[in-house]
Design brief:
There is one protein chain. This protein is mainly alpha-helical. It folds into 2 domains: 105 residues; 171 residues, hpI Integrase, Chain A (Orthogonal Bundle), CATH 1.10.443.10. The strands form 2 sheets. It has a 3-stranded antiparallel beta sheet. Helix 5 packs across helix 9, helix 6 crosses helix 10 and helix 10 packs antiparallel against helix 11. It is globular. It starts with 30 loop residues before the first strand and ends in an 11-residue tail after the last helix.
Length: 342
Amino acid sequence: MPFAGSLPTSLPPSFSPSVATINLSPPEPVLDARHLDELIGLWLERGVADPRTAAGYGYKVKYFRTWWAANGPGRGWALRRRHLLAFAKYLETVRSRYGEPLSYHSQNDVLRRLRQMFAWASLGGFLPSGDFAAWVPSPDGEPPERQAATVEMLQRLFEAADRVLYPERARTILAVLIGTGIRRGECASIRVEDIRLYADHSGTMTVTGKRTRANHTGRRQVAFDTDTGAYLAAFLDVSKIERGPLFRNLRTGEGLTIKGVHHIVKGCIAAAGLTEQIQGCHDLRRAFATHFARIFRGEGYGDLLRRQMGHRTYRMTAQYSLLNADDIRDSLKSPLHFFDAV
């Protein structure tokens, strides 16, 4: 029986014979994905310029590679849009190595990297025509509103460093991340010979971070204050390291990897009981930007913060400064303030 509103069986003479009709049962697009794992490997090798960034992306898409290896055979390696929806739901059940559910932002990062891989593969001709990146959904729900870590929280982190392996190293890593706002990869890249420490313990150091069109090497200089420098000086004294990586693996003696820095910070967060308030290294970067923006206001200071954070434009820096209505209230003067007293 035709549904209400269906086209009549005979069209009037004036009606165009080329009229488009609605197909209520369109064929479902499907991708032969038996080589999808190899494609992801090619993307990490060829599509991500910085090897350290590729390692981070690889860690994220590993969730999908593991899931597809387990679920692909039962689906005949035929990937459909609904399967990626199922993967997104699966992420809600995954727990991190610390036993915690993946946060909204972690789930979103996994899906974002997968979407980025499909877009790269389509542009490179590895996939047939079709917007496969659009198949990858976003996580359900809304991202939680981020709040900058308070000074009290950061102090608890420092105190927790006494309860993890090699407290001096953990405490110095925290001091560098909180005191400079650099990324965890940049923290892992610090070499002793690239640190310039002045008599008052302030100074500068060269770090290696993201490679961009404007900075092909990823190397840049950042500054640190006397408080941060005091932790650095104390660690240099106790570690006796004179050259090479500042932060090292205790077993191999080699420089810490990005993942190694992440694990140390996560261990301190867990020991401090702050897993709900601080997710990882990036939240320490946000804390630096927010506290700097609260203390130093004005366009000139905004440019200094942008340079310290390593951003090309202040627009990106502003996303890290988690200022709120109370910060606005502290500086706000409406037109009423300038009215003549009545």
